[in-house]
Amino acid sequence: MKALLSACILAVSTLVVGCGTIIRSDVTTFHEWPDTLADKSYVFERTKEQNDSLEYKNYENLVRHELNQLGFSEAPSGTKPALKAALSYSINGRDVREVYPVVVNPYPYWYGPAWRGYYGPFYDPFWFGPPVVEQRVSQYHLFNRQLRVTLARMSDSKKLFETTVVSEGTNGSLASVMPYMVRSAFTEFPGKNGVPRHIELKMD
User: Fold this and answer.
1) Is the pLDDT of residue 202 over 90?
2) Domains of the chain: which residue ranges?
3) How far is the C-alpha of 33 from the C-alpha of 31, rounded, in Å?
4) Distance CA 200, CA 164 (A)
5) Burial class (CB within 10 angstroms; exposed 0-12, middle 13-18, buried 19+) of 45
6) DSSP label at 52?
7) How far apart are CA 71 and CA 77, in angstroms?
8) Closest CA to 50 of 91, 92, 86
9) Would you state the pLDDT for residue 12?
10) How close are the terminal C-alpha atoms of the chain, in Å?
11) What is the pLDDT of residues 65-74, one digit of tens each?
12) Which of 58, 67, 104, 178 is disulfide-compatible with 72, CB 3.0–4.6 A?
């Protein structure tokens, strides 16, 4: 019976922890990255819609920062870069309904012998018998957030690096989550080829 109580408490605790400020992302990278790359200059390749989007420019700046941290450099205007970078992103949501067990007090008020004074069953959960477990329902909106970044050779458009970041959570603000998704995309660059990774980053 104690095992049942512990399992129920653990289930509730897991739900509470899941509501913290941790951004969890699943990252899958495919690459044919050369052992040496003398010229790491790049330029962003944008669609017409991206050129007109202030939101895109904000996310592009995040990718630019990560590339610069890795030793890449954006090519000055009028020069020919060795690489071209591209990014795309999306977010969509769905309603989720979860049923989970909760341990409840079957005796909310009880007065013991006079010398014991008043106390509730939480002092002795097995005084009257096993605990009562009720099923509770939780409903919320879950968002699926995706980011895709590619690096290709400028000369022949051959892709050298392609990574996809998928993150799910209740935060529907893509702008607040994107910095952590971009960081996840370049963690351990270029990363293991074709090996999915689970990355967790704490929000500042």
Assistant:
1) yes
2) 23-124+131-202
3) 5
4) 15
5) middle
6) T
7) 19
8) 86
9) 38
10) 41
11) 999 999 999 9
12) 67
Tokens representing 117 are 């004074």
Cα–Cα distance measured from residue 202 to residue 23, given in angstroms and rounded to the nearest whole number: 6
Do residues 73 and 41 touch, judged by C-beta distance below 8 A? yes
Quick one: tokens of 65? Answer: 């920062």
Of the CA atoms within 13 Å of residue 185, those in its CB half-sphere come to: 30
What is the CATH T-level fold of the domain 23-124+131-202, as seen in this structure?
Answer: Double Stranded RNA Binding Domain (3.30.160)
Write the pLDDT tens digit of every residue in 72-85: 999 998 899 999 99
Q: What gap in Å lies between CA 70 and CA 176, rounded to an integer?
A: 23
Strand duo 41-44 + 83-104: pairing = parallel
The single residue listed with the structure tokens 């067990």 is: 101
Which pLDDT belongs to residue 128? 55
Q: What is the pLDDT of residue 104?
A: 77
Angle at 133 between CA 135 and CA 6, to 5 degrees: 115
Whether the full predicted model's pTM is greater than 0.85, yes or no, is: no
